[in-house]
Amino acid sequence: MMDSETTAFDRLSMSLGSSNRIQRKNILIIDDELGILESIEELFNDTFNVFKAKDGKEGLDLFKSRSIDLVMLDLKLPGMEGLDVLKGIREFSKTVPVIVLTGHSTIERAERCADLMVHGYIRKPFDSFDLLERVREILNENTNIGNIEINHSTYASVNGLSSPIRQSVNFINNHYTKPIMPKDVAARVLVSREYLGRKFKKELGHSINEYINGLRIEKSKQLLLKNKDKKLFQVSHQLGFKSESHFLRIFKKYTGMTPNVFKKSSVE
């Protein structure tokens, strides 16, 4: 029989939604830079199925052979140019979202994509969190958890979890103030990132990033209520967020309001 803490954890997982039961959407990245391919795959792998192509022909072949929901396309590619790849995509589908990745040398070419129905441009080097938010918005991947009240005991509970997930939760609970990522958690518990991501979702019903962000937001609410004069950049830095703007976006997604509105609403 589960104790009260485990029950609270289960309620959180149910509130976060049954994302593990929903078919993951497919993202295709076409870029000849290995570092870009790997960094975007790392960023999106917890939430989406990621397909990679290092040149235009490979990318177009992948697009035609898979059910792709969104494409991230570099315009400067070996062999078949990115603009030609985009034209090929549009011949095959008029509606699939395409985000163009641009560098200084491809700005003019990017402007020629306007008539091919692109859904935005991302300048290199890009902000990972901004890119993630952009993709989720385009695909209507609503990560807004809403006004969920999460107690500290919820995040402290590890009862009933398998060994790697129990270790992962303990590690996150003790290191959430640092800029940790799923790959850091996986390295800590000595399993692959892919395996841990799947098992984390299976047991908790949401991704590692969602767990980390949820914990940070709960802690931020405590900080804001304890010291209403505390600056937002201080809170974001103290809790391991990449920037104040990232903290603001995540706070609103998880609570449905800005930190300032939250502070005012908490005044009796």
Task: Characterize the structure shown.
- The protein has 14 helices and 5 strands.
- Helix content is 53%, strand content 9%.
- It has 2 domains: 26-138, Rossmann fold (3-Layer(aba) Sandwich), CATH 3.40.50.2300; 152-265, Orthogonal Bundle (Arc Repressor Mutant, subunit A), CATH 1.10.10.60.
- It is an alpha/beta fold and 268 residues long.
- It has a 5-stranded parallel β-sheet, with helices on both faces.
- Helix 3 (56-65) packs parallel to helix 4, helix 8 (163-175) packs across helix 9 and helix 12 (232-238) packs across helix 13.
List keywords for this structure.
268 residues; Rossmann fold; Arc Repressor Mutant, subunit A; 2 domains; 5 strands; 9% strand; globular; disordered N terminus
Q: In total, how many domains does the architecture comprise? A: 2
Overall geometry: globular
Please state the structural category: alpha/beta
SSE topology string: HEHEHEHEHEHHHHHHHHH
Poorly predicted ranges: 1-21, 142-154
Main β-sheet description: 5 strands, parallel
Oligomer: single chain
